[in-house]
Amino acid sequence: MKNRYYELTITLNEQYVDLIADFIMNIYDEGVEFGTDRIIIRSESDLTFVKDALLSLQQDLESDIHMDFTLKEKENIDWIKTYQESIQPIEAGKFYIFPSWHAPKENLINIRIDPALAFGSGHHATTFSCLEAISDYIKPSDHIIDVGCGSGILGLACKKLGATVELCDTDPISVQSCKENFRLNEESYDKLWEGSADKAEGKYDVVIANIIADVLRFIATDLKKVTKKDGFLILSGILDKKEKLVQDSFGDLVLEKRILKDEWVTLIYRKK
Ligand SMILES: C[S@@+](CC[C@H](N)C(=O)[O-])C[C@H]1O[C@@H](n2cnc3c(N)ncnc32)[C@H](O)[C@@H]1O
After folding, report:
1. What keywords does the record list, in alphabetical order (predicted)?
2. Is residue 228 assigned to a domain?
3. Whose CA is nearest to atom 14 of ligand 1?
């Protein structure tokens, strides 16, 4: 891609737009945009030849077609590069989350996630706090479930710490994205399904659910049921104004830790 491009604007009477457009398309057919009283052509090559051809057409026709020309040289923006530069890697707890176009980092546990349709790039406060909690709470011997896995980032983090990992999500796009991210990171999960915690068959040392407060309340019984005695629940996605409601639903457990980041709360419970 060149650093600059040319933009030729031809302003003319509306009734001649089609006629001149046909002529232009015969000599140049890339990057042509039509308006009611103007035609704009963009190219990385100099467009003076199009302007000259139109001037000589005007003379040959000896008609009253009047055209004004503006030929400008403009800066070319590499939108892909600009977009990629806007997605920066992050460090959360023991983890370094980075997109493919960045290099991994030494001395941290690397997780490669490319932005996609599923939630979970690590940039949101809820995912970030969960990654911190995972850094502190997950042991290699743990069997965990990531309920509402999105991109699979939290399950991947647990897998990288040596845990046995199951994941689920009610959204099929998330399930697909989770599969792709495990493949991208050359890791394998132990189980993955479309659906929620009610379809889980086992009991887990740690249950992780970063879902909004109302859903956490709705599936509270299932989340508690699949947690082993003395196991932990890492609950996130809770807006501070909804925290009390979630605490009410999980009041029969022991609240071990509370993390607040921006207006998002993460609660870590232990089942008695
Ligand atoms: C905020 S995202 C979290 C994604 C990822 N775990 C993270 O921490 O970045 C919440 C995910 O939960 C899923 N979800 C919503 N309701 C659910 C439910 N009842 N059971 C399982 N997953 C659910 C959504 O489809 C979404 O992918």
Report:
1. Cytoplasm, Methyltransferase, Ribonucleoprotein, Ribosomal protein, S-adenosyl-L-methionine, Transferase
2. yes
3. 148
Structural domain range at position 237: 119-270
Distance 176 CA to ligand 1 centre (A): 13
Asked casually if ipTM beats, i.e. exceeds, 0.95, the reply is: yes
Domain count, the chain: 2
| pTM summary value | 0.78
Q: Are strands 38-43 and 32-34 parallel, antiparallel or unpaired?
A: antiparallel
Residue 227 annotated as binding site: no
110 by Cβ neighbours in 10 Å (0-12 / 13-18 / 19+) ranks as: middle
Whether residues 219 and 139 share a domain: the answer is yes
What is the atom index within ligand 1 of the atom nearest the CA of 126?
8
Between the CA of 122 and the centroid of ligand 1 the distance, in Å, is: 14
Domain check: are 166 and 258 in the same one? Answer: yes
What are residue 109's DSSP bridge partners?
A: 95
**Residues with Cβ < 8 Å from 32, sequence gap 6 or more?**
21, 24, 25, 39, 40, 41
- Is 139 in the same domain as 211? yes
Give 178 Cα–ligand 1 centroid separation in angstroms.
Answer: 11
State which of 170, 236, 266 you would mutate to test the pocket of ligand 1, scoring each by most atoms of that ligand within 8 A of its C-beta. Answer: 170
Identify whether 176 is part of a domain: yes
244 and 125 within one domain: yes
**Final residue before a domain boundary, out of 22, 47, 76:** 76
Q: Is 185 annotated as a binding residue?
A: no
Cα(152) to ligand 1 centroid in Å equals: 10
> What would the pLDDT profile of 28-87 be if each residue is shown by its tens digit?
878 899 899 999 999 999 999 999 999 999 888 777 788 999 999 998 888 777 777 778
Answer yes or no: is the C-beta of 149 below 6 A from any ligand 1 atom.
yes
Instruction: With beta carbons less than 8 A apart as the criterion, state whether 9 and 70 touch.
Output: yes
Q: Is residue 85 part of a domain?
A: no
